[in-house]
Amino acid sequence: MRRRLRPLTGPLLALLLALAPLRAAEAQLATLIADSIGFNGADEVEAAGNVEIYYNGNRILAERLIYNRADDALTILGPITLIEENGQVVTASYAELSGDLKDGIMQGARLVLEEQMQIAAAEINRVDGRYNQLYKAVASSCRICANGGAPLWRIRAERVIHDQEARQLYFDNAVFEIGGLPVFYLPRMRLPDPSLRRSSGFLIPSLKQTTALGFGFRFPYFLTLGDHADVTLTPFVTSKSKTVEGRYRQAFRWGRIQFSGAVSVDDILPDETRAYLFGQGRFNLPYDFKLDLNIELVSDRGYLDTYDYSDKDRLSNGLSISRTRRHEYIFASAETLRTLRDSEVPVEETLATELVRGTYERRFPRIAGGEGRLTFDVQGYERNADSVTPALQAACTAASVPAGDCLARDVFRTSAELGWHRDWLLAGGALLKADTALAGDFYVVGQDPALDPRLGRITPAAAVELRWPLMRTAPNGARDVIQPVMQLAWSESYGDTVPVEDGRLVDFDMGNLLSLSRFPGHDARETGLRATAGLTWTHVTPKGHEYALAAARVFRTEDPGVFGGASGLDGRNSDWLLAGRVEIGDRLSLTNRSLFDTDLDFTKAETRLTWRGEKITAATSYIWVDAAPVEGRFEDVAEWNVDFAYDFNRNWTGSMDWRYDFDADRAAKAGIGVEYRNECVNVGLSLSRTFTTSTSVEPSTDIGLTVSLNGFGRDGRPYARGCKYVKG
Length: 728
Known about the structure:
This protein has about 725 residues and is mainly β. The chain has three helices and 43 strands. The strands form two sheets. It has a 26-stranded antiparallel β-barrel. Strands 1, 2, 3, 4, 5, 6, 7, 8, 9, 10, 11, 12 and 13 form a 13-stranded antiparallel sheet that branches. The longest helix has 10 residues, at about 10-20. The protein is elongated, with a radius of gyration of 36 Å.
């Protein structure tokens, strides 16, 4: 019969007090459960059969226990399982422990950390409840099967010390083995236990082979600087270069910063020291304001691409401050820009590279039954050129820059806009919407003899919109929603002709279909009388599959002459805008957006298809955009992208990516990779080829190999391997 001892009688109370020594700061009783309990004299108690002890958050399971009150010592016979308050598990066949479980010896023991790392040892010494010293130890996070065989990897050591407070593992005379074969020896080694998120030390190295840099390896070192900051230094040595990469991070009560950079000496530019520095920061200021910092510096145009640090071709450095509230938005920024594009570098002096901007937006609910809006916006540009010299004009001509874009002009603009919006629900479910706006712009222009130094303009605008959503539910539960929409809009600008700096890239889509102006900025504003007509249809099946289609077009009384040919909005009537979407559960997704005229000549076309299956994840996209010199695009864009991944099984995954440039009639980038992962190791091998060429970057082939051991702060348990048992 199983008994539970309760502190009610004299002898039993003495036993419980003996098993839980009292301390001045805390007095806790131990709870003992066993099938049978006996007393061997006045100072010795013996419990046998399904023994369980609960004390101070710790739990012991054993077959037999002998407690000596005079020595305050426990002798425990196994199998023994000790589950500590922090979740650490120790198993053993025999143990001699102090009454408070902090000190003692455990034989034939195994230490399990975070259900990932296990360390088997002939003996474990527990010291002060903090240190576990394991002798003749073997450590691994690989699953060990009962039919024998060495794990994929393991570490043998004469002694392993586990510091539970610092959460560190210290190995003496360690031998690292792969498949049972010794690979290397270290007299001393330190590793974090799986519960530690941050710890100073070397990280997993990686190998890389590129045609530009040759064969090399990275060997990162991570250094903690207190609880809120750290530094990662990574020597990157190849046959053609020597590089030191670095990253610094720090978190504050009021914000955070991060800086990444590198310094290189290589054979590509042997007489130069190449480097880059990227930095970001965000800080909380009083009154709900946010301050953002951005730094992007590089020594030369080809450095980022050659070392695969970034694919940015324009760099920004600046500060911004913002605040967002329910009815208010404030934003201000100052930045400088640098171009890395081959076509822009010769004419960089004609580009607006120094910018300031500020925006204030305020909403006023319940104004004449609707909502009022007030917007102030300021924006300034400065170019480095003092004038367009003959040499600069020749550079613009060589770079195919239109004559009107080869400028030395500096501009500062202030704008104010007052708007009002209201919705009505009509009989039959129709929705009526009205929008009005009055905008004023004032410009200060310098270094442009074709324009007056002071310019002003006023633009009133109004629109009325009608929607009539119609829904039908079929007998099988399928739903159809058809919604025709009509908008009649008018706007006109009065005053001077102003320079257009921020409104050239117009993207005609469903997001701005019914806007008063489809230009993204304030310099260019849509004018004239126009009508927009559209129709959307959505079908949802009982299984949740969704099909949607939308079509729209803009009709005008006259051509405003402000839109480029690639926008789809030029001419008296716009191109047809057609958008479609197919969603088959969570697996298949197909989206398309196209702009084409009545002769079915496409201006833009974008299609994306994704599939998420049990074994296959695939995505492919195609984009076509007409050339538009006014937008800085002198050739057609036609690209096909493919991303593919296949899970051969729960441990092996293959991947492939490919980008093909139809305009150049060649692949732009291609890559393949394979990854193996299980509960104790991740191995990745990749091969990629970049075909793009420029004056600063040559085509290159990259080969990468990464190997990381799980169990040291990494959890590979979802990919645990199974064991094959052989019948005897």
